[in-house]
Amino acid sequence: MQPYILQTSKLSKQFKRQKAVAEVSLNVPAHSVYGLLGPNGAGKTTILKMVTGLLRPSGGEILFAGEPWSRKRLGEIGALIESPALYGNLTASENLLVHAKLLRLPKERIAQVLDTVDLQNTGRKRASQFSLGMKQRLGIAIALLNQPKLLILDEPTNGLDPLGIQELRELIRSFPTQGITVILSSHILSEVEQIADHIGIISGGRLGYECAIHPDEDLEALFMKVVAENRGAEGDSHA
């Protein structure tokens, strides 16, 4: 049986009277790309923020590598949620140096992650001059600094042109071979279908489907069915 690096059991989040996430039980296999699919406002970002400690769950449990989640496990999780937080007046290396110092990591990691995301030749170019795709890759480099076992990417291809999407797709597919599990959230079915090994479909704050991707599966029909079944359920307006 393939071990799970992350599992949630009846994970829930309530904002005042709004239930953003309702008893979601995810199972993310180690060394895979897990696609968290759902329309905008489904609750995807809220789930990822709970996994990364940015939000406290209202109920349920999170297991990391088979053990109850605690803040000490954050050192094994890298995340790019929403837009990368970059210093526009600094170079790629300088941005990474700031984070390396905060995390007390050796400077050698900077060159390693720049090479991983193919930003090793940006020289003195400031982050404010980067294309959107380069900014996303720099955000991923920051998330990789601490050599995480789990990498969480929230809608990473948003706004990218076709070339940027292709480059990011190849990068994400390379991570499981390096021992890194990826959770990729998206509302774009075709993108997830080309990258992910497993999918979970969230709609109205609920998990409507979870399984390995099968080549003969009509993912679009499945997605529409799950969304239709949960239409009208309260979702997360911020996801």
From TrEMBL:
<keyword id="KW-0067">ATP-binding</keyword>
<keyword id="KW-0547">Nucleotide-binding</keyword>
<keyword id="KW-0813">Transport</keyword>
<dbReference type="InterPro" id="IPR027417">
    <property type="entry name" value="P-loop_NTPase"/>
</dbReference>
<dbReference type="GO" id="GO:0016887">
    <property type="term" value="F:ATP hydrolysis activity"/>
</dbReference>
<dbReference type="InterPro" id="IPR003439">
    <property type="entry name" value="ABC_transporter-like_ATP-bd"/>
</dbReference>
<dbReference type="Pfam" id="PF00005">
    <property type="entry name" value="ABC_tran"/>
</dbReference>
<dbReference type="InterPro" id="IPR003593">
    <property type="entry name" value="AAA+_ATPase"/>
</dbReference>
<feature type="domain" description="ABC transporter">
    <location>
        <begin position="6"/>
        <end position="229"/>
    </location>
</feature>
<comment type="similarity">
    <text>Belongs to the ABC transporter superfamily.</text>
</comment>
<dbReference type="GO" id="GO:0005524">
    <property type="term" value="F:ATP binding"/>
</dbReference>
<dbReference type="InterPro" id="IPR022501">
    <property type="entry name" value="ABC_Gallidermin_ATP-bd"/>
</dbReference>
<protein>
    <submittedName>
        <fullName>Lantibiotic ABC transporter ATP-binding protein</fullName>
    </submittedName>
</protein>
<dbReference type="InterPro" id="IPR017871">
    <property type="entry name" value="ABC_transporter-like_CS"/>
</dbReference>
